[in-house]
Amino acid sequence: MTFARIAGTGSYLPPRVVTNDELAARLDTSDAWIRGRTGIRQRHIAEDSQASSDLALEASRRALEAAGLGAADLDLIVVATSTPDFVFPSTACLLQAKLGVRDCPAFDLQAVCSGFVYALATADSFIRNRIAKNALVVGAEVYSRILDWNDRATCVLFGDGAGAVVLAAAEHPGVHASVLHADGSQAGILSVPGNVCGGRIVGSPFLQMQGGQVFKLAVKVLDEVARETLAAAAMRVEDVDWLIPHQANLRILEATAKRLGVARERLVVTVDHHANTSAASVPLALDEFVRAGRIKPGHRVMLQGVGGGFTWGASLVTM
Ligand code: ACO
């Protein structure tokens, strides 16, 4: 039987850091409010010249290096993003060209903040079914482009960045189980309800959110999907070394860990310095903890996504 394992991780944050105080200098908000309600103290913001594919490229190079592979070894590229460079071609195709390779299938996957977990489950399936051996799975976002910077209720929450993993065929898992869900009836609570039509933007190009409803739903489904994933892998919560929920809000993370009975020391938190980077948040957090030597080979990690759609999902992996 063929399984997939994470052979390398990488990430990239644009150098420009925007603190809460910088936002408070031009918005009716404060460092105390943002930290108290979300745990966020800063976010990274891309330069105008940087698109999602540029952030993805840096993260991908680092993941490939960590895996000891070259871009020519890839036979699948999946990019999770809801801030693609263009309507088309896909950011994955642009990334493939920037990596200097051609031929392997490359596509984007749109599941908003659950995008990376959806992409990981998709690539895992390709590898288990022997359609691919080495897959590059990326979450890359420039949310700064879809925020209304005058809307204090949303713009303080997000940041830009990219994270990547190389998923490689292996004799042992790797990815033990993944569970994915969606509920399109909740589309309205978190959306960018706009499109390009006839040369104009129709609708709104800015992120809109009913924060309270998102908060409640996120805590509920993150708990449920973790339990479903453990059941699918025939494991218990005690078997999990690290919990990496989508980094939306510290209060969501802590509530999820508490409901699951995961100790605070086993909860990975990067939202304080990355803010919410949507599809990039989970691989960014994973890479930070791998490179810090905290997540080690053999550790079991629960990766969780939740976001617009509404979508949610989880993967349980042994590193
Ligand atoms: N600074 C100061 N005051 C603010 C700010 C701000 N940046 N934003 C909102 N307020 C005010 C509101 O106007 C409101 O004022 P009022 O009482 O005078 O009307 C007050 O603060 C309380 O607003 P609420 O929206 O009720 O605050 P809440 O405690 O719900 O926190 C928050 C808002 C942080 C958005 C919270 O609902 C939340 O985190 N929700 C989850 C949303 C999330 O994480 N989204 C990310 C994307 S979704 C995802 O990734 C899953």
Question: If you had to describe this structure to a student in words, what would you say it looks like?
Answer:
The radius of gyration is 18 Å and the shape is globular. The protein folds into 2 domains: 3-172, Peroxisomal Thiolase, Chain A, domain 1 (3-Layer(aba) Sandwich), CATH 3.40.47.10; 176-318, Thiolase/Chalcone synthase (Peroxisomal Thiolase, Chain A, domain 1, 3-Layer(aba) Sandwich). Helix 3 (52-67) crosses helix 4. With 319 residues, the protein is an alpha+beta fold. A 5-stranded mixed β-sheet has the order 1-7-6-4-5, with helices on both faces. A 4-stranded mixed β-sheet has the order 8-15-14-13, sandwiched between helices. Strands 2-3 form a two-stranded antiparallel ribbon. The protein is built from 10 helices and 15 strands. The longest helix is centred in the C-terminal third of the chain and has 22 residues, at 211-232. Strand 14 (300-307) and strand 15 form a beta hairpin. The site of acetyl coenzyme *A (ACO) has 23 residues, from helix 2, helix 6, helix 7 and strand 14.
